[in-house]
Amino acid sequence: MSSCRRPEHMAPPEVFYNEEEAKKYSQNSRMIEIQSQMSERAVELLNLPEDQPCFLLDVGCGSGLSGDYLSEEGHVWVGMDISTAMLDVALEREVEGDLILGDMGQGMPFRPGSFDGCISISALQWLCNADKKSHSPPKRLYTFFSTLYSSLARGARAVFQIYPENSEQLELITAQAMKAGFTGGMVVDYPNSSKAKKFFLCLFAGVSGVLPKGLGSETVDRGVSNQAQFTGQRSRFKNMKGKSVKKSKDWIMEKKERRRRQGKDVRADTKYTGRQRRPRF
Amino acid sequence: MKLLTHNILTSHVKGVTKGYPLLIKATEVRVNEVEFNPQFVSRMIPKLEWSALVQAAEGDLPSSLIQDYENNEEFLRKVHRVLLEVEVIEGCLQCPESGREFPISRGVPNMLLNEDDS
């Protein structure tokens, strides 16, 4: 059901995450596991100094599932969320981080250079919808990113795990982040698996860093990259599903590989494989 | 709300230039026991607004930072207690410039702004 897959289309987050939904979210063991895994990956991408407890911000912390992982790693964190019901669950769960009730689109209420890093798991997409008539998603995104930029210490990173709806949304997000002064790009894990594929927006505040490689790069076929550096180009984000464009050389190579694995008879690859034929062919 | 969080919180209302530090008006305070990590406290000290912390601590801390605090365990323990163990459960935070109040309930400060604030 599309409504389940895109809760941000149903209602604003403070309405969608009411008491019932908040409880469901935090008791679902599969949800807990996924959130924990994504938090682990996000912290990995933060590239914090080893064995050092850091002061981190968790944007859209919800019931504290991601925050628990931060505490496990020995970090001190502050979480912000717009849903009182979700924060109530976090309080019941006795999370170690400090919680703040706030709207990320209104800006981060922190002194400059406060945090060593920021993570956000499955929250940023909520900012892309206009929940009130007065809302302008690009403005709210910019307000969020610019205040976040100043809240971070120089050289700190912000990692956002997101579920982008389409390329326009991705472009909107990255454009506002760049406008706010961030550098960085998208890291895509397991780009070829529609189920395992995860998007992490990796932003650097103040220092240009090397974008980490996405996971699943050993099995990546030619032509499918799992990094996307911010560039000045306005290129469309193709292949959201992670599959190659049909009939392209990559697609042909993948199909041949698939059939080989199935044990079928497949022609050997030569320099002519997948090559463009003349129109007369 | 721990005092470490208070030290970095500021009013982000549009038009306010001096929204820091927020004045704490606490009606309920609690002291928890939190594991002491001298490395973390040591690292955080230079990032803090010391005067705001002293004001919030209400007498528990010296008004100016002592020299060579990294090796002074007693001092670090005092700072640790103030930063991470003291928690404001009920009360409010008041903006020094506008007087606007941000309520604190169950330890959670409400920083939501109204339409005309942002």
From TrEMBL, chain A:
GO biological process assignments: rRNA (guanine-N7)-methylation
InterPro entries cross-referenced by the UniProt entry: Bud23-like, Bud23_C, Methyltransf_11, SAM-dependent_MTases_sf
Residue ranges constituting the Methyltransferase type domain according to the UniProt record: 57-130
GO-annotated molecular function: rRNA (guanine) methyltransferase activity
Bias kind Basic and acidic residues: ranges: 247-256, 263-272
Biased composition (Basic residues): 235-246
Entry keyword set: Cytoplasm, Methyltransferase, Nucleus, S-adenosyl-L-methionine, Transferase
Subcellular location: Cytoplasm; Nucleus
Chain spans, region Disordered: 231-281
Pfam families with a match to the protein in the record: Methyltransf_11, WBS_methylT
Subunit structure and binding partners: Heterodimer with TRMT112; this heterodimerization is necessary for the metabolic stability and activity of the catalytic subunit BUD23. Interacts with GRIP1.
Similarity section: Belongs to the class I-like SAM-binding methyltransferase superfamily. BUD23/WBSCR22 family.
PANTHER family membership: 18S RRNA (GUANINE-N(7))-METHYLTRANSFERASE-RELATED, METHYLTRANSFERASE-RELATED
Annotated protein name in UniProt: 18S rRNA (guanine-N(7))-methyltransferase
Gene, per the UniProt record: bud23
UniProtKB/TrEMBL annotation, chain B:
GO molecular function: protein heterodimerization activity
UniProt-listed GO biological process terms: rRNA (guanine-N7)-methylation; tRNA methylation
Chief location bin: cytoplasm
GO annotations of cellular component type: nucleoplasm; perinuclear region of cytoplasm
Keywords: Cytoplasm, Nucleus
Listed InterPro entries: Trm112, Trm112-like
SUPFAM superfamilies: Trm112p-like
Domain of life: Eukaryota
UniProt subcellular location: Cytoplasm, Perinuclear region; Nucleus, Nucleoplasm
Similarity comment text for this entry: Belongs to the TRM112 family.
Name the UniProt record assigns to this protein: Multifunctional methyltransferase subunit TRM112-like protein
Organism: Chanos chanos (Milkfish)
